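Let us work through a complete example step by step.
Step 1: write down the sequence.
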Amino acid sequence: MPPKKPKTPAEQPSSEPRAAQEPSNTPKDEGQSGTKSSSVPSKRKAKTTEAPSKAPRRSVRGAPQSQADPIKLLQYLLSPASLDLCRPKDEIEDLKNRGGDICTYSSSTFTPFEELMCAVILSRPISHALGLRSIRTLFNKPYEFTTPKKIRSAGFDGVRKALDEARTQHRQKTAEELVLLADAVVEHLGDGEDDVSLERVRKKCDYDWDKEKDLLKKHVKGLGKTGLDIFARRIQAAWPDPYPFADQRTLSGLRKVGLPDSAEELKNLLDEHWTELDVKALKGGGDEKKRRAFVRVLERAVGVDLEGNADAVRAEAAASSG
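Step 2: predict the structure and record it as tokens.
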């Protein structure tokens, strides 16, 4: 009798949901995937059998891939219905337990200083779930480390305590970098301990994004290419300087959900169909509102990809009324 064929890793699914697992040495995170444009996307099967709290997803197991038209995809990703397919499961649980008014990276509008903090945190080699949990812990009560002054007052020990509570990785180094970031803003990038606008950066650099990147990299310890890509992706909602920008990690997410994998093409698609889209909930007007819509689509696409829900998003968008 021939010997039994050993099971491959793909035939041995994890018995624990991803968001509830402890940190691993090989997380699926923005830093890991955003640094190499030619890296091969993970073949982890999309999660389609567990329903999010607000947007029940239809099963696509065993069925042909649903294909939504680009306008339906844009409308769905811009809508609140897509949010739970973009979030880690522990963020969904946290919102249930603490209420929907807490700050989250998935749905809150942050100041430029807060966005820079997030870029430092998310460029560490940690999972999507741990990165977003760290941000929620730092920005919400009882810590609320949302200004350089609050971080400097808490010092290394205070920031490290918050990161300990977040149960994340690289706590020592991240705490050190966040304190150094607060110092850098006060000394080089902002106008005092309470300034969160970082307008000093833009004025120093004559509103030139390449110069702004160089200045940030020079003064912010731990902020490399991946962190700058994350910051640019988000900050373009408020700063037109880098717009339209999409990093390689985000382009991969756009491709997987069925949208153009080019920042310029996505911008043109939004412009062409702008009057068909429901964007009333977005802040600002005119060009700023368009930039915010662009950023929201990018953020939802990368979140969907990191959570393995591209198939579910295509199915929900295809089934929506548009």
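Step 3: interpret the result. The chain has a mean pLDDT of 85.
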